[in-house]
Amino acid sequence: MSTEPKVAIVTGASQGIGAGILQAFKNRNYRVVATSRSIKPVDDSDVVTVQGDIGAADTAERVFKAAFDHFGRVDTLVNNAGMFMAKPFTAYSQADYATYMSTNVTGFFHITQRALEFMGKQGRGHVLTITTSLVDQPMSAVPAVLASLTKGALSAATRALAIEYAKTGVRINAVSPGIIKTPMHPPEAHQALAALHPMGRMGDVSDIVDAVLYLEGAEFVTGEILHVDGGQAAGHHIVQGA
Q1: Distance CA 240, CA 88 (A)
Q2: Do residues 229 and 223 make contact, with C-beta atoms less than 8 angstroms apart?
Q3: DSSP 8-state secondary structure symbol assigned to residue 199
Q4: How far is CA 58 from CA 55, 150, 195, 217, in A?
Q5: Are the C-beta atoms of 202 and 181 separated by less than 8 Å?
Q6: pLDDT tens string for the chain (242 positions)?
Q7: Cβ distance 75 to 122 under 8 Å?
Q8: d(C-alpha 103, C-alpha 81), whole Å
Q9: CA distance 225 to 222
Q10: Are 177 and 130 in contact (CB under 8 A)?
Q11: DSSP assignment, residue 6?
C-alpha cells in the first residue's frame, strides 16, 4: 500500500458544504484540488485551487492536470458544485434551465468521466456526489422541479455507475441533504426552513461532512444514496400551525 497522502478533488469548494468538505479532508491529511467559479489561490502546499465554470469541459481538464502536476494522483472526487433556485415550474426561463443543466448535469458529466477514466485504470477510487432529498420527497412549500430533474439524474447515475464499476475497485456514492445552513439561506428564513424537516431543524454543514467522511471510508458501500435530511425522505409530517 502506498504511504503517499491521498488526493481529493472537491468541486464548488469556495463556501458552504464544499468548504466544509475541503477542510475535513485537510484534517485527514489529504491533499486537495479545490475548484469553483470564485475560488481564490491559497498559501497552502496541500491545497491547489482551480478557478472555472464546472459546466465547461476545459475546467475538468485543468482540474485533473493540476492534481497530477502537483500531487501525482487522484483518489477521490466530490461532486459538490450545484445550483438551486426554487420557482414555480412555469416561471423557469430558458436561461434558468440552461444554467441548471450546465452546472448540475454537464459539470458532473465532464469531471466524473475524467475521474473514472483515471480511477478505472488504477483500480481504486471513490466518486461521491451531493444531491438533494427533494428528489425523493418533493414539497409544495419548495417548488423546485429543475432541482429534482437534474439532481434526480445524478442519483440515477450514481447507482448505474456503481454497478458499472463494481468490480474495478472504484466506488460511487451520493449524499442527499435536506436544507442546510449555508450562505444560500438568510438567517431570517431559518425558522421556516427548520419546520420543513420532521426533526424540526435545518442541517449543519458538519452533518453533511460527517456523511461524506463515512462514505469515503466505507469500503463495502457503493451505489448508496445516503439521506442526511432530518427525516424528510422518510415521509410527510405535520407542521405545527400549518
Answers
A1: 24
A2: no
A3: T
A4: 9, 21, 41, 30
A5: yes
A6: 567 899 999 999 999 999 999 999 999 999 999 999 999 999 999 999 999 999 999 999 999 999 999 999 999 999 999 988 889 999 999 999 999 999 999 999 999 999 999 999 999 999 999 999 888 888 777 888 999 999 999 999 999 999 999 999 999 999 999 989 887 788 888 998 898 888 999 999 999 999 999 999 999 999 999 999 999 888 876 665 54
A7: no
A8: 7
A9: 9
A10: yes
A11: P
Q: Rounded CA gap, 241 and 226, in Å?
A: 30
Q: Which three cell numbers stand for residue 144?
A: 423546485
What is the CA angle 99-15-208, rounded to 5?
A: 95
Q: How many helices (H) and strands (E) does the chain have?
A: 7, 7
Closest listed residue to residue 127, CA positions, set 108, 142, 144: 108
The three three-digit cell numbers of residue 189, written as one number:
428564513
This prediction has a pTM of: 0.94
Distant-in-sequence, close-in-space partners of 194: CB < 8 Å, separation ≥ 6: 200, 201, 202
| Residue tagged 493540476 (cell numbers) | 66
Q: Are 35 and 11 in contact (CB under 8 A)?
A: yes
